[in-house]
Design a protein that fits this description.
The chain has about 260 residues and is α+β, with helices and mostly antiparallel strands. Helices cover about 35% and strands about 25% of the residues.
């Protein structure tokens, strides 16, 4: 094989890897008309270490995953692919025990990754009949529930990032969600953008933008777009880290 042929082969493999990663982050059609959800992952390179997933589950439930691997580029992409694969496999054996699920994922990440590699992760399951969100936060930026009255509840219960320690233990949190509530989950690439003066947008900037966007739009896709546009206005489009945002709006109960 010539050098040119090798370059073409590597380029094709790289493009295929990019397509596979983007395929992991497709947003399925909402299984329940009482939920409206959307997300976007905007990476600084073709491959990155952020991911999100919405996974419709049986019995009118929806799983949400938002994760962020340490580092950037190919190494981070491989780490996050490992975490995504482990989550899907472990879910088959751990059932509804979210703490046990994260313990398995952590063990897999720790044993199969090089030293110093880890990922922060939020995993939540919304149950439509009870209108509850059960979740585990593995060292991730705490997602927030913005209530209709403007109050905010941060989702912090969990444990350490997956892959960081061999025997991490995890706790499960639970929160009741009501019509009009808005769930915002994100990675730090969204909140750590800076303006020309070097000031960070921060969680406060994100939540202010989310609350403002929620007053302008009832559609989750538009909410995501409005929040990213507000971030870009603040930072003049200067982004140095992968940025991921997932939005879930709770609609009226259908049954």
């Amino acid at each position: 094989m010539t050098t040119d042929e090798m370059v073409v082969d590597v380029s094709q493999d790289w493009l295929l890897a990019c397509d596979v990663q983007q395929g992991f982050m497709q947003t399925p059609r909402a299984a329940s008309g009482s939920l409206d959800y959307s997300a976007r992952c905007r990476q600084v390179r073709a491959l990155g270490g952020d991911c999100y997933n919405f996974i419709p589950l049986k019995n009118n439930r929806l799983a949400l995953i938002v994760a962020d691997a340490s580092g950037k580029g190919l190494a981070a992409a491989l780490m996050i692919a490992n975490v995504q694969s482990s989550l899907r496999t472990a879910a088959l054996f751990t059932g509804d025990d979210l703490a046990a699920l994260l313990k398995v994922v952590n063990h897999q990440a720790y044993t199969s990754s090089s030293e110093g590699r880890y990922a922060t992760l939020f995993y939540g399951v919304f149950d439509e009949p009870t209108r509850t969100l059960r979740y585990v936060n593995a060292g991730h930026n705490p997602p927030a529930v913005i209530r209709r009255d403007g109050s905010m509840h941060c989702l912090e219960k969990g444990g350490a990032p997956v892959g960081l320690f061999a025997d991490s233990e995890y706790g499960e949190g639970i929160v009741k969600l009501e019509t009009g509530d808005l769930l915002i989950a994100f990675t730090d690439g969204l909140t750590e953008v800076t303006n020309q003066s070097g000031e960070e947008w921060g969680v406060h900037g994100l939540m202010k933008a989310a609350a403002s966007a929620a007053q302008c739009s009832q559609d989750a896709d538009n909410l995501v777009n409005l929040i990213f546009n507000t971030m870009d206005d603040f930072s003049r489009g200067h982004q140095t880290d992968d940025a991921t945002l997932a939005v879930v709006r709770i609609g009226p109960r259908l049954f």
